[in-house]
Structure to design on (70 residues):
C-alpha cells in the first residue's frame, strides 16, 4: 500500500502490511478483498468495517521511502 503523509514527510513512502498478517488481529488482511476494501477515517486506515485499524504514526514507522512502485 502506498502511503503519503505530508505531516511527517513530503516524500512518498511504502507501507508493507505483510509483516502484520501473521498476528491474529490482522490475519484477515491476507484476503485481498478485505485488504483492498480499506477506508480512511480521520487519517486512520481501517479495514473490515473498522474492526482493523492503523494510525498514521504506526504506518509511518513501518514504512520506507520509495521512488516508484513496480
Amino acid at each position: 500500500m502506498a502511503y503519503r503523509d505530508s505531516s511527517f514527510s513530503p516524500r512518498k513512502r511504502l507501507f508493507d502490511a505483510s509483516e502484520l498478517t501473521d498476528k491474529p488481529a490482522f490475519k484477515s488482511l491476507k484476503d485481498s478483498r478485505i485488504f483492498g476494501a480499506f477506508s480512511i477515517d480521520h487519517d486512520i486506515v481501517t479495514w473490515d468495517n473498522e474492526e482493523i485499524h492503523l494510525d498514521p504514526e504506526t504506518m509511518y514507522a513501518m514504512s520506507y521511502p520509495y521512488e516508484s512502485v513496480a
